[in-house]
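Box S1 | Example of a co-folding query
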Amino acid sequence: MTMRWTIGGRLALGMGAIIALFLMSDLVVYWYAHEFSALGSGFRLCALLAGVTAGFLTLRSVTLRVRSLLAATQAQAAGHLSRRVLPESGDELGRLAIAFNQMAEVLERNAVSRTYLDNVIRSLSESLIVVSPTGVIETVNPASCSLLGYPERDLTGSSIQRVLGLNDTALTLEFLFTGVTEQETYYYRRDGQRIPVLFSAAPLRARDGSLQGAVCIALDIVERRRTQRALAASRAQLRNLVQYLNLSREEERTQIARELHDQLGQSLTGIKMDIAWIQRRIEDHEASDQRIAQRLNAMSRHVDATVSLVRRVATELRPAVLDNLGLVPALDLLLRQFNERTGIGVEPSLGPAVNLTPAQATALYRIAQEALTNVARHAQARCVQLRMGHSEGNARLEVQDDGRGIEPSDREPRRSLGLLGIEERARELGGALTIGGPPGTTLTVTFPIRPSP
Ligand SMILES: Nc1ncnc2c1ncn2[C@@H]1O[C@H](COP(=O)(O)OP(=O)(O)OP(=O)(O)O)[C@@H](O)[C@H]1O
Ligand SMILES: [Mg+2]
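Box S1 (continued) | Returned holo structure for adenosine-5'-triphosphate
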């Protein structure tokens, strides 16, 4: 165990030593009063000298250590945070030195994390501004200065309203201190230019909950806006292209269907009449050849089959009934043919006819056609309902089946194009597609009845 000498203890020891020496000198004088009185005086003098020397040494040691502490404190104040002092002993000054070293340690640690934080803030590519509770800018990072075109000294101390371009102080403070997350707003540059930014602000609170200010982060989204505009333009172009392709495909289909029906159909009818004529002639002839008659019968059946094939293909390409009688009879025919082909039950509910433009009628017909094809291919349904109606200026087409339903994964990623085509056509009509279910699948397309732009 080490013995701790306090400064008080040392001084008391020194004083005690002086008093003891005085007493001893008195004792000696008492014994040798007459013969050695000079000796007594000598002792007193020695004792006094020893006391003064001890006091001086103690004082000097204290002064030197206080000086060293002072120098270390001044070094800390000048930013030399690694400076420490030697405790030397366990007295009050020693303990003061230990406490000083501990404080310096904490200061250095805090300074390191502060520097770290400063570096993080400085290297942020987003603009960071810290404002006081009254909205005065206290800290800005270099990204803010380059975004706003101000030197740091011009920004710190000025109001955040200058940057946000807001006139109402109360409104600005409410905006900042209630917290904002990724809101699109504007920052105002020194040259007056308005920059779109993605802005977030969070209130800064002390441990006791009192408001210390707000931290504002802003991301320059000029580039993002540009990209968004370019993307929107290219989407619009793509949509126009799809519209154009749909339109020209429809025109081509109509033309082919018409030619199939009119030209090929008429030629086949002509062939059929010729065959009938030859059949009659052969039957009239006495020496008619049975084999020729059979061959002609077979030819006649082939021509009949080809005529109905041509009619079916022409109808699938573009049903004449759509152009001649309108959408409702065309959908009715489509459902009947679907039922004959697939055996799936159909329940039409086609309401009173809606007054549609030819383009709208064609789009709805194609939507119903693709939806029914999907039911036949994917749904494993027993029954499909096709409903068409209108209310409050909106037309609605609904195709509902009682099949296995569409999984969300069926729609992502978009490798198949049927549903995408339906969605695109719905958008062309100024409306939208929704997919409902389970049970089963319900495709609903709604759009305003006014002529599409
Ligand atoms: N009525 C339905 N019932 C169940 N699943 C369906 C139904 N309609 C569509 N699906 C699912 O959604 C997927 C996407 O349909 P979509 O019409 O887009 O493509 P597809 O029919 O596979 O191919 P295509 O591009 O030839 O139309 C289908 O592959 C199918 O799994
Ligand atoms: Mg499909």
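The chain is about 60% helix and 15% strand. The two ends are 98 Å apart (CA to CA).
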